[in-house]
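User: Teach me something about this protein's shape.
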Amino acid sequence: MNKSELVEAVASSTGESKAHAEKAVNAVLDSIVAAVAAGDKVQITGFGTFEPRDRAARTARNPQTGAEIQVKATTVPAFKAGKGFKDAVKP
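Assistant: First, the predicted structure itself:
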């Protein structure tokens, strides 16, 4: 499912127009991105948690030349699925 399919699903589920559903989906996604970018954790009970995680500096290899390079420490977004999400996916 891509974003436009998600918008269609939200529109059909809520009975709203696609334009309203797209605004709602964009508002939710923008809010999550802004909160995680600010260093906050976004926890949606039954779905999961979005949070920033620190990645340590490390030494890596250039696959073409084999030369070692230093990769700087950085912060990356992470998602951890909640129990309800995990249970829904289990066979």
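Now, about its shape. The mean pLDDT is 95. The radius of gyration is 18 Å. If you'd like, I can walk through any region in more detail.
User: That's plenty for now, thanks!
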